[in-house]
């Protein structure tokens, strides 16, 4: 098959992944804002779509890390076919977890799928061990940091406003939540949209269409647009899980969770590290809920969410590896 057709398939699948990532991860930015009625669902989604687009257009460091951190695009055998298998595997897992309302990580799915398809194509020697290790440490460390900071932020807010009127506190923080949700959506765009950009740029390099991992403008624009459109659809099942089922979120809790998660994600973006926005915001909510009242958190549900995090990378890797092997029979 012509290499340009294969690259076109990668670009289509990458944009589809970005679109699905948008509606799968909409909950990350607006779940707490919708659940506390700081914004109506429609207004929250419009705001998240715009801020996602803006964030996606401004940064490319994570794209370069995804594009070269796990495997070398200049030496990978059958690199375009590897990327096709990667994206199909990641999309399948994203749709399965979306259908069941599980806040699984699109980032874990993509990285797991890329790892699995690279191993299927070139063995473990095809994996860039140091880059893979750095990415996995960021993925594992960011939720732990978000949980800790969320707990501390909520604990400090409890002390500061201990003697204040709950009605006034909720009114004030409900307004502040609009700004923190916008910041959260912006940071989501700065990190998550870049993953699809990295895959598309990887395809261009491995196919010999361009020589460097610099992200072309049209790649940034198309990925940002796909994510914004996906965000505009919304992922209501996951919004319900994150906004109401973990614990009863009040405006002060939503503010604390959004500030925490957005800060962790933006720090990762500035250091060119891909992190899971899903894991980060969920961990921040758990940390805030624990500080509010440990028994208020539905830990059984939290346990199920954590299990989905643990299994995402291996399942996505196996899916993508199997898809690559099937493709190899015909290509």
TrEMBL record:
- Name its cellular compartments: Membrane
GO biological process terms, semicolon-separated = phosphate ion transmembrane transport
Repeat is among the record's keywords: no
Question: Topology in the membrane?
Answer: Multi-pass membrane protein
GO molecular function terms noted in the UniProt entry: phosphate transmembrane transporter activity
> Which domain of life does the protein's organism represent?
Bacteria
Could you tell me what this protein is called?
Answer: PiT family inorganic phosphate transporter
What organism does the record attribute this protein to? Paenibacillus phyllosphaerae
